[in-house]
Amino acid sequence: MGGDPGLTAGRSEAEGAEPVAMLTLGALRATVLVYAVGAAVLLAQLLRRLRGGFQEPALPAQPDRVAIVTGGTDGIGLATARRLAWLGMCVVIAGNNAAKANDVVSRIREETKNEKVHFLFCDLASLRSVRKFARDFLSRGLPLHVLVNNAGVMMVPPGRTEDGFEHHFGVNFLGHFLLTHLLLGALTSAGSPGQRSRVVTVASATHYVGELDPADPQDWKSPYSAHAAYARSKLALVLFSQRLQRLLAARGDPVTANLVDPGVVDTALFRHVWWGTRAVQRVLGWLLFKTPDEGAWTSVYAAAAPELEGVGGRYLYNEAETEPLGLARDVELQARLWAESCRLAGIPDGTGFGVE
Ligand SMILES: NC(=O)c1ccc[n+]([C@@H]2O[C@H](COP(=O)([O-])OP(=O)(O)OC[C@H]3O[C@@H](n4cnc5c(N)ncnc54)[C@H](OP(=O)(O)O)[C@@H]3O)[C@@H](O)[C@H]2O)c1
What we know:
The chain has 356 residues and is of the alpha/beta class. It has 10 helices and 8 strands. Strands 3-2-1-4-5-6-7-8 form an 8-stranded mixed sheet, with helices on both faces. α3 links the parallel β1 and β2 (90-95). The longest helix is centred in the first third of the chain and has 26 residues, at 25-50. It binds NADP nicotinamide-adenine-dinucleotide phosphate. Residues 70-71, 73-77, 95-97, 100, 122-125, 150-154, 171, 202, 204, 262, 264-265, 267-269 line the site of NADP nicotinamide-adenine-dinucleotide phosphate (NAP).
């Protein structure tokens, strides 16, 4: 099966029309809501920093484990890959910029003295590339204990992926949805009842203001809003991870799925946001934003903390459990999004899941 089903499926609902950004009431509402969430998180981070700051979780060395980190070439993903390498894991960075990734691999190897750090090309904006990445990884015969679905784009201008999907939906959500499906067999084989494999999916507080119609998860019916599209892609990830955990548990697979929320982190993710926000990031980032290392701690914690052995279905923030949006627990919504995503990604609904 190739990437072609997704190719036509992605375009079908908009009949080839490019998404257009327009300042409608809906777009304005999404912008205000996303900024309100961001401001609330920044305030909480400031208070926490003033109260004594952030504590890095202490974790044991894990030299026998193999992890894939998508978007491990920058920001939170780079910090996650580096920290997992410090723990002795074999780390495969999945990225779409070979030159940048090779440089990152050399730097991490040098810093951590861990030679088991590698790069494999994966462009999440292309289902063909995601499939090739999975084939390349599996052909190496390595076990897979940890998959960190981290890569992302935020508030990019209207545009489509290679397969015709709205960019946030395609890169942040559908690419990871397919990747996880393709690697689930490897995760299951490498896990055991006492040491389960882990799928860690990087969400965002913006999912709290996301809205998603499972019959139209890319919201083609509305004019394009970058804020709504980003929040929607993160809500889709939350719904996906919650359902994944339920299906894994029902089947008794030795794999857990958790969500992590890094907070607001000083990275290049903000390159497309309003210049005023970038000015705040530049001037006050040191005080209000988390550093990439601090932002990565929850991902690393979810990937490696012994106390999370066997624990799945959690939404983790600041290395502790918190509640996702109530709607994200809606199993009917989860199932409908899952079915539609399988259709868009060109995989049978329930791939590997004969449990419902
Ligand atoms: N920063 C925050 O405040 C914040 C808050 C909540 C959630 N998050 C989430 O955290 C995750 C990491 O974000 P970040 O802040 O670390 O951003 P970042 O510094 O911009 O890093 C994003 C990473 O994703 C990669 N990427 C982008 N498009 C890709 C594609 N098509 N295929 C493969 N890789 C791709 C980038 O690759 P290149 O190196 O080639 O650019 C980069 O490595 C994202 O999922 C984001 O939504 C971030």
